[in-house]
Amino acid sequence: MPTSWNRLRNDDTIRSHAINAENPTGARGSAGAASSNLGPGRKGSAWYELPAGSTVTLAEISGNGVIRHIWITVTDKTPAGPFVLRDLVLRAYWDGAEHPQVEVPLGDFFCNGFAARALVTSEPIVVAPTGGMNSYFPMPFRTSARIEVTSDHGDDIGHLFFQIDYTTGDDFDDWPGYFHAQWRRSNGTTSLGEDHVIVDGIEGTGTYVGTYVALASLQRYWWGEGEVKFYIDGDSDLPSLCSTGLEDYAGGAWAFQDALRADPEPQPIPFSAPYFGYPFASAKDETKASEFWTPMLPMHAVYRWHLPDPIFFQENLRVTLQQIGTWEHGLFERADDISTTAYWYQTTLSAPFPALPSATERTPR
User: Fold this and answer.
1) Cα 322–Cα 324–Cα 330 angle in degrees, nearest 5
2) pLDDT the model gives residue 40
3) Source organism's superkingdom (predicted)?
């Protein structure tokens, strides 16, 4: 599929731009004009402020083009709490749509779930030390693009650093359609035997390109036997595609452990690769919501990018994740705290997403 890293054609219709606090409009020949104590044009406007409860527009672009790269970083905690990365929401609107086609908590979009930092080194998403979050998903548009960050956090964010690199003059038909991303959570709320819904309600023609899963284990024993299922173009009881387990779907095996043994206790090995990874594993709450009580809640995160092996659909798509574990007596049904982000393209704008849960309902608890 066409992607930003292999669309390097240079012709007289395509122009490069960048939007950041030094050039809010992305106009050519207009970057870095603000003054600082060093003088005119010397790093005078490096960030935006994001007051509590407000929305800041990072980019508003007219015409046709493609967003090629997004870089953003913020603090991960304030005196109001440690959940900044879940409290901020990234939204994107293409071609004047009234509803967003991207609506994901900021950290989860960049594979940093649980409002906790994790290093990620993959093809479309990179999170570098310390908290430099990058997306290389190409995001084409025909007439306009708007990208926003909304704060549901209880304190002001004093420094929001970002840059959006894009081109104008691109032919929309060279690309796989409009980029979409949607977040959902099942916080132990499903019945036993009920699958977590990663995404549904996708209608039309498109290409599914990735999944991020952040799972907090609410029950004992191994949590990763659930299969990811893709119901394509009218599949009903059974899907067309089905993985053999969550760690298998994410390219790993045998519980991501250093060895198959009971004693000493095996250790998980986080890793990050171009198209799949297990970037986060923790037996305690790294956000330290309380200095008096740090709950010992195992947390795990995986990602899988379907870029060399995209999942094509012509009419509709539904993606689910079984909640199944295993122990010495065999498989068993579970109900864990699962948050997922689905990434896909479709040739038309999506229908409105289900309402995003409130900040309280998104809090990792």
Assistant:
1) 145
2) 87
3) Bacteria
